[in-house]
Design a protein that fits this description.
Blueprint: H1 3-10, E1 27-31, E2 34-37, E3 42-45, H2 48-51, H3 60-70, H4 84-96, E4 103-107, H5 110-127, E5 134-138, H6 147-152, H7 156-159, E6 169-172, H8 180-191, E7 196-201, E8 205-206, E9 212-213, H9 216-228, E10 232-236, E11 260-263, E12 275-279, H10 281-285, H11 306-319, H12 322-342, E13 348-354, E14 357-362, H13 373-384, E15 387-388, E16 395-398, H14 406-419
Parallel strand pairs: 3-15, 5-6, 5-7, 7-10, 10-11
Antiparallel strand pairs: 1-2, 2-3, 4-12, 8-9, 11-12, 13-14, 14-16
Helix pairs in contact: 3-11, 4-11, 8-9, 12-14
Length: about 425
């Protein structure tokens, strides 16, 4: 029995309708931007395995850091104790985060990072006997699958089964080009009610919505509106963080800093699950009291796992090298060259680029569903041609590891171009 056949016997995969899904490729090896399945077939990982692996599979620098840490201290509880890797990571993060971020809360993944931010927002006002029980979010957002994160998301088929069980979230239009005024007016109306604890957003690029992009200028205005009305701002940088947009964080394009940031995915270079929520000193101070009940009673068993912290430190060190920064610029330039070629194709509706993120929308007669026929046809075509890409409806996006070679990226472009001929 093959690994793929055994997998089908035992596993329940994420975002998968198993009634209509066949055998899945069993990956047995990864190196750089490449993956190999049990049959020896090679794939180019053109989305860095869900955006987590910017420095390539089996990266030796991160592997060595993990091994060294495992032989010293693999894990110790963070409740009542601390550890050196967590402190070193915090010090490093303070060097690269916006200057108003002063406190770090560790958790396990992007959803929990968002959950921490939402809970802290709500409890901050509860601690002050102020009734602010609602959250503002953008339409078509995706912030994760735990309940607070899910409530803040706007892609309905992810959340519709749970609508009666979610906290109250009001969604406003995404401030894409031409919609800025409408979005700003909607936000201004909300923040003036004194009912909202926070505004959460994916800065500059909504990943799961199909890499929908908007400008730093309008986001600056939105954050300023929130600050003027005592509504906290939460930048969900789970996808955009650590170089994806061309800067370390998407927030680095702004003049105004958010109150909270959510980090995960590329944090550990795709090695160990870990997440971070960062806070201003003001928010942290809102939980300081002689009354123990005003503490933030939230935690995870593997909070500040030393091995994960060591991996994150190695990952950030790699990101800061001249080589990696040049790689990010190189990929961006290659995307621009490909855009000039592909945007005139008769089947291409629009193209978008931000940093190493490239997206194109395919012209369709009807609105394509997220996991619709076109998407599934494209996905299968890419897999058959040895490319890992996961289209979103009629949007094909590329978000490769920074170490992908020009030749590998050119193959990805060529396969995307061929895919336009089959739709």
């Amino acid at each position: 029995m093959t690994l793929s056949e055994k997998d089908q016997l035992y596993h329940w995969h994420p975002y998968t309708q198993h009634q209509t899904t066949g055998l899945l490729p069993a990956i047995v090896k990864g190196d750089g931007a490449l993956l190999w399945d049990e049959n020896g077939k090679e794939y180019i990982d053109a989305i860095a395995s869900w955006w987590v692996n910017p420095f390539g599979h089996s990266n030796q620098v991160i592997a060595d850091a993990i091994f060294k840490q495992l032989t010293t201290l693999e894990h110790v509880l963070f409740g009542g104790f601390t550890n050196k890797p967590a402190i070193l990571l915090a010090e490093k993060l303070m060097e690269i985060l916006p200057s108003n971020q002063k406190k770090i809360f560790y958790s396990d993944n992007g959803s929990t990072a968002v959950e921490v931010a939402i809970k802290a927002s709500l409890q901050y006002f509860y601690n002050k006997n102020q009734k602010r029980t609602k959250i503002i979010a953008l339409e078509d957002a995706f912030h994760g699958d735990t309940f607070g994160a899910m409530a803040s998301s706007g892609i309905t088929f992810f959340t519709e089964a749970f609508q009666g069980s979610l906290l109250e979230v009001v969604r406003i239009p995404v401030p894409t080009s031409g919609n800025e005024t409408t979005s700003l007016q909607a936000l201004e109306k909300m923040v003036q009610t004194n009912e909202f604890a926070a505004f959460i957003f994916e800065p500059l690029c909504q990943g799961a919505a199909g890499m929908v992009m908007y400008s730093p200028e309008v986001l600056d205005k939105m954050i300023t509106l929130c600050k003027a009305n005592s509504v906290f701002t939460i930048a969900d940088e789970v996808m955009t963080g650590f170089g994806k947009t061309g800067k370390t964080f998407a927030i680095d394009y702004l003049e105004t800093n958010p109150d909270m940031m959510c980090l995960s995915k590329a944090l550990t270079g795709g090695t160990i699950p870990m997440a971070i929520t960062t806070f201003t000193q003001e928010i942290f101070n809102g939980f300081l009291d002689e009354d123990v009940n005003k503490a933030f009673f939230h935690g995870h068993t593997f909070t500040a796992n030393p091995t994960g912290c060591a991996a994150a430190l190695a990952s950030i060190t790699l990101l800061e090298t001249d080589e990696m920064q040049k790689n990010i610029e190189r990929i961006h330039d290659l995307h621009l060259d490909f855009e000039q070629k592909i945007k005139i194709h008769s089947r291409v509706k629009t193209t978008r680029i931000l940093g190493v993120i490239f997206a194109l929308e395919i012209k369709t007669e009807n609105q394509e569903s997220y996991y619709g026929t076109l998407r599934n046809k494209l996905y299968q075509f890419f897999i058959e041609n040895g490319i890992v890409l996961r289209p979103v409806g009629n949007t094909v996006y590329i978000l490769p590891p920074y170490i992908i070679t020009n030749q590998q990226l050119e193959k990805v472009y060529n396969v995307v171009e061929k895919a336009l001929e089959i739709v």
